[in-house]
Amino acid sequence: MKTIPSMKLGEEGAMAIIQAALQKAHSMKVTVSIAVVDDGAHLVAFARTDGARLHTVPVALSKARSAALTRSPTGKKTSSG
To answer: I need a labelling partner for 64 at 20 to 30 A (CA). Which of 3, 15, 74, 75 fits?
Structure first.
């Protein structure tokens, strides 16, 4: 076979990610922009909390795209993983 089947992130999954990230941001009392991209680094969903500065928009997009294209998370590394 010349193709590889794969699962794709849908609207429902992207919105679940947005909601979880918004809940975490609110619990931490921080303002953020949240970008969710597909495996090709194309935007699927986006949210910006009230009060988040405008420069957080391109930063969120860049971090999400970098994570998708390198297949690795962004952010701080922890000793447990």
So the answer is: 3
**Which residue from 63, 70, 4 is spatially nearest to 39, judged by alpha carbons?**
70
Three-class SS state of 46: strand
Distance CA 46, CA 32 (A): 11
- Residues, the chain: 81
* pTM score over 0.70: yes
Q: Within a 10 A sphere around the Cβ of 32, how many other Cβ atoms? A: 19
pLDDT digits (tens, 9 = 90+) for 25-54: 999 999 999 999 999 999 999 999 999 999
